[in-house]
Amino acid sequence: MKRPTGTPKRTGRSPVADKRTAPAEPKSPVRRHKAPVRRGNVVVRTIAGTVGLIWRIVWGSMWRLAMVMALIIGGATAYFYAGLPEPQALFDARARGSVTMLDADGKVFAWRGETYGAVTSDKIAPVLKEAVISTEDRRFYRHFGVSPRGIASAIKINLAEGRGPLEGNGGSTITQQVAKLLCLGETFDPIRWKNEAEFEQDCRGGGIWRKIKEVPFAFALEAKYSKDEILSIYMNRSYMGGGSRGFEAASQRYFNKHASEVNAAESAMLAGLLQAPSYFAPTANLQRSRERANVVLGLMGEEGYLTPDEVAQARANPASLSQAAEARAGGYFADWVMESGPGFLTSETTEDVTIRTTFDPRIQTAAERALKRIFDEKVSDNSKAEAAVVVMSADGAVRAIIGGRDSIVNGAFNRAVQAKRQTGSSFKPFVYAAALEAGYGPGDRIEDGPLTIRIPGGKPWSPQNYTRRYYGNVTLTTALKQSLNTATIRLQEAVGRDAVRRIAHDFGIVSNLTTSPSLGLGASEATLMELTGAYAGIRNGGTSVAPYGLIELRIAGDDQPLMGQSGGMGARVISQRAAGQLIYMMQQVIDSGTGTRAKMGTRPVAGKTGTTSSYRDAWFVGFSEQYVVGVWMGYDDNTPLKGVTGGGLPAEIWQAVMTDIHEGLPELPLSTVSPDGSGILLSNDGAPRVVTSGSADDPLAAALAGAVNSANLAGGAPTQVTAPQTPGDSSTASSDDALSRALNGILGGN
């Protein structure tokens, strides 16, 4: 069947066509709504817009400012970084050196300036580093030099306690404290600053600008050095009180041990000093320093460096000072040595200096103890009276100095060497020395009675005795032991004031001596050191003495000393015979005269009292065979002493000091010569000994030798012949004294 061809005829509408041609559904008309009209207060809209604008400006400025600040801090950090040297170069913060003083036995007893000893953190006891970190910067190993949390905490504490935000607690890290210690890289300029202390005070000062500069400097430190190196700088430069700079010097100063050897209690005490070195220094107040150490121990326990048992054990066994630090003896002595030496090697030294001295801590402690005992027993608690004591050997070697009742001092007014006071009757021995040298004898007589001396251009002067009584014709011995004024002045006028002045000056009274008749009554001024040294010249047989304390000075590390002893025995002032006679007379002052309160039992001693007009000064100076001791008592403002004379409290102080310093020493006789001038040396056991005047043709000595020789030939026991011994001379007679040798030969039977 044939398929149909062509387009088939459609009888209906095609569904597709229907779709194509069908009219579109009518659409709903689109409504275009207008923007809703804003409603609200125009003021609010204005404020909101303004705030938004400001915020956009501030935000834009802040990030730009932050970028600028970061660049500035980065630049400052780089600048500081470039100027930082090796860490060891920053350890020693001192502009001047130190002086270490050794006593007569070679042991350290005092320091002046700032002592220092370099030590790196790896050589410091770990417990000491832990104590420092616990106290000063717990997050030391976890920050980059600045601790925002610490600063915020400090500001909060300051505000809570009513201070300014930057006053009081600073929140500084150890790194920031090192920045302060380094003065932000500045060095001391003597032209800009009066002294180093003022410079350091400015470095330690607060203020916003300095705090700001600390930040980049701290960053530079952290970038340049390791944490241990920063800690080493801190532990070497920090001032630790007591004249010590750094933990090594402080450990040596307070405990006499190295910083590597300290225990937990000692470490806590040292770390506690960082808050206030002078206030918490154990030499200033040991109990206060221990209380501060207990706080540090607690912090170490909180940080886990110590167990509770270790904290309890350290608190139960607190740190103790070394013997030298605890005694703190010799402050006045050390000050005197510093003043007596050249400034460029002492107070102004740029080197570390060691000085070996004549100081004896046993004698110093005994003298201080004796002085305190007398004042506690005999002087009212509210008394402002002062006292000074000097102890020396007969050759002028000073063993102890007390410059005031407060014996633990440094740089205080030293009444023993700085106060010039009228000497009163303690000057009289020089009048009698002049008379004895001129040929008078202890048994010669002088008139004690009313006396008036006419002074050209002035009013007549009439001295009086202390008792207002006169004793008529008396021996020189009686006049001296009873301290008779009119007899002394008559004797002075007889031998001549110039002779008295010369002898006093040659014995060591270097202060200006008056030319008026009152010279013999001690109207001139002198220091206690001068007067004691002059008496030492009498004690050693008439040879002058220059008091000294320095034996040797050397730069630390040098083998050869730069200085040696600068004082000691000098030229002869009076003969041995005159000196021996004067010693005998001065011995009578204590035995039965104005100085009986100074008696020391059977020990032979000699001395002289002294009281000035109006009782402003009271003295007692005297000696045994071993030591010469001078005592002064008075008020700093020259207020008269009530009821005190040289034979009273000063004599008692002298006796107490002499008793304590002679403990355990043998009783040795003094080289006295009998009042008849015969040359018999009166010893403690009564056995006579013969001395000579030093002249081989002395007829008196020759006659004495003949008499003694006759007595020996008649069967008497031979009598020992000696010359007065000088310090260091163990011989019984001078080898170059012809008469002594002859007498020794005769009386010895040779």
From TrEMBL:
Q: Please name the Pfam families in this protein's record.
A: Transgly, Transpeptidase
Report which residue ranges the record marks as coiled coil.
none
Q: Has keyword Hydrolase?
A: yes
Q: Specify the Penicillin-binding protein transpeptidase domain's residue ranges.
A: 388-653
**GO biological process terms on file:** peptidoglycan biosynthetic process; proteolysis
Ranges for domain Glycosyl transferase family? 116-300
Family named by the database record: In the N-terminal section; belongs to the glycosyltransferase 51 family.
The record's section on InterPro entries has: Beta-lactam/transpept-like (IPR012338), Glyco_trans_51 (IPR001264), Glycosyltr_51/Transpeptidase (IPR050396), Lysozyme-like_dom_sf (IPR023346), PBP_transglycosylase (IPR036950), PCN-bd_Tpept (IPR001460)
* Enzyme class (EC, first level): transferase
**GO cellular-component term (any):** outer membrane-bounded periplasmic space
Where are its TM segments located?
42-59
State the UniProt keywords alphabetically. Answer: Carboxypeptidase, Glycosyltransferase, Hydrolase, Membrane, Multifunctional enzyme, Protease, Transferase, Transmembrane, Transmembrane helix
Q: Does the keyword Glycosyltransferase apply?
A: yes
Gene Ontology MF terms in the entry: carboxypeptidase activity; penicillin binding; peptidoglycan glycosyltransferase activity
Q: Which organism is it from?
A: Paracoccus haematequi
Q: Which reaction does it catalyse?
A: [GlcNAc-(1->4)-Mur2Ac(oyl-L-Ala-gamma-D-Glu-L-Lys-D-Ala-D-Ala)](n)-di-trans,octa-cis-undecaprenyl diphosphate + beta-D-GlcNAc-(1->4)-Mur2Ac(oyl-L-Ala-gamma-D-Glu-L-Lys-D-Ala-D-Ala)-di-trans,octa-cis-undecaprenyl diphosphate = [GlcNAc-(1->4)-Mur2Ac(oyl-L-Ala-gamma-D-Glu-L-Lys-D-Ala-D-Ala)](n+1)-di-trans,octa-cis-undecaprenyl diphosphate + di-trans,octa-cis-undecaprenyl diphosphate + H(+)
The pathway noted for it is: Cell wall biogenesis; peptidoglycan biosynthesis
In terms of SUPFAM superfamilies, this protein maps to: beta-lactamase/transpeptidase-like, Lysozyme-like
Ranges of biased composition (kind: Polar residues): 719-728
Superkingdom of the organism of origin: Bacteria
Entry EC number(s): 2.4.99.28
Q: What is this protein called?
A: peptidoglycan glycosyltransferase
Q: Where are the residues of the annotated region Disordered?
A: 1-36, 716-737
